């Protein structure tokens, strides 16, 4: 199909409808309400469309610039011109030297003032100016610029909060004056912080309307709170609580009216319950006691073994033990000798010092060495005395 020209467009400047080349395909789309559609297909579908929103421009070509769908367009002698004009149209225009933009804020309202003058310094009146403002949240809203004086156009917009506001104004088609101009407005903080003084007139008016009073802070002894207000009271219904209490007491009243209580039976039941609880407690303790006694017995046995290993025996105990062993060996020798007469055992003479040793209590292990040295010394002295005799 060969595209048809539907309306004039600067993109098609210098290109006639008869000069257009056929296309082999395109993507079916629907044009927006405010879009311009210079070229359409044989089924009235958009082939070329462009749209300007504020100072932003967009172009849509629903076919392609390659050999699959547009081989004839690639060989077309105005192919380069078509795309050059398309790209040039989308670029931002030059800033107008005939427009000057001023912005200011007053009482939470932003004011935009545009002055229009030609190159000779004359005012330009009856311009078709369109403007827009973008708030800090990137939301755009249109500006209605109206002429308020010779060559002066003004508009207002609400200021919602802190941040930067971008203002744009553009003119079109009046005496050849076309172009746009941008400006900005920055609010670093809320406008209410600019007030550094107290507005006494407003505060007095508020006190007068609301029945308040104006206090002075000179003596710093002002009581800002009134304590002369009448005390308030409020009635609270008591029947819900009384009804709930009656519902709870009715079964108790019926029980005491219908049931005869024998306190001896109550005491008997109490004693039975207490005895059962005591029996359960004793059974639990009895089950735990054998385990505890076995553990204690094992600990005592281990302790006794360690004590026997760590505590040395006294010399008297060693002597008595040796005496018993000698006596047993002597009895065994008599049995082995048959009719041989058993020798009469010699009486064992226990010295006085040894008797004292027998009666002496067992000493700890750490004193055994010192006592052994003392016993050896006494034995040496006694042996020396027998030799002299």
What does the model show?
- The protein is of the alpha+beta class.
- Among the domains are: 4-90, no CATH class; 99-192, Domain of unknown function DUF4426 (Immunoglobulin-like, Sandwich).
- It is built from eight helices and twelve strands.
- It has a four-stranded antiparallel beta sheet with strand order 1-2-3-4, covered by helices on one side.
- Strand 5 and strand 6 (109-116) form a beta hairpin.
- The N and C termini lie far apart (159 Å).
Task: Outline the fold blueprint.
Blueprint: E1 4-5, E2 36-40, E3 46-53, E4 56-61, H1 71-74, H2 79-90, E5 99-106, E6 109-116, E7 129-134, E8 140-143, E9 146-149, E10 152-158, E11 163-174, E12 177-187, H3 200-210, H4 239-258, H5 263-310, H6 315-337, H7 352-359, H8 368-388
CATH class of the domain at 99-192, named Mainly Beta
Stated plainly, the CATH topology of the domain at 99-192 is called Immunoglobulin-like
Strand content: 15-25%
Largest sheet, spatial ordering of strands: 1-2-3-4
End-to-end gap:
159 Å
Largest sheet: 4 strands, antiparallel
